[in-house]
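hey m, so remember when u said the tokens were messed up on ur end? i reran from scratch. heres the input so u can diff it against urs
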Amino acid sequence: MEPGCEEAGEFRAPPLEGASDSPGPPPFRWFCLDHVRAFNSRYNFFDGMTADEIHHAQRPLAGWERETRAFAHAGGDKPPKWSDFSDPLDAIAARFRREVAPERNDGKPLSGQDRASLKVLGLAADADRGALRKRYSELVRKYHPDRNGGDRSHEAMLQKVIAAYQQLRQAPAFV
């Protein structure tokens, strides 16, 4: 707060150099709007720098040459070290467990949703469009109420089969 000012100090400003002897960060100064504007108008980042230092700081790529840490490791987080960690419910380790993804012979990619839909239909990962249609027809005949004498107990499974087929027929692996 500025000496003699009665306004509330709402705006933070950097502390005075050498204002604190404590080991932590020095406390900020708080100013009213008028006094923080005056403080900012007097502030000069380049004060005390040579012409070469100012030129170096104003380069277009200044700061970009610094080394940065990687955010991810091979597409995901690194798993924690388990030597001193107990995970009896397998709540954390399950996230890092890699299941071998079934691959297609033609090299076309399968998403997680594609794999789940193939599982609902009971098909292998390398099934083709013809096998997809054939299996869909079999399962619709099996679960449809008109084929089961009006029994509607399999209606939920029929809806899953239809949804899986609709998803897979538009998937890149089956186009």
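this time it looks ok to me. The chain has six helices and two strands. if urs says something different then somethings off w ur setup not the seq
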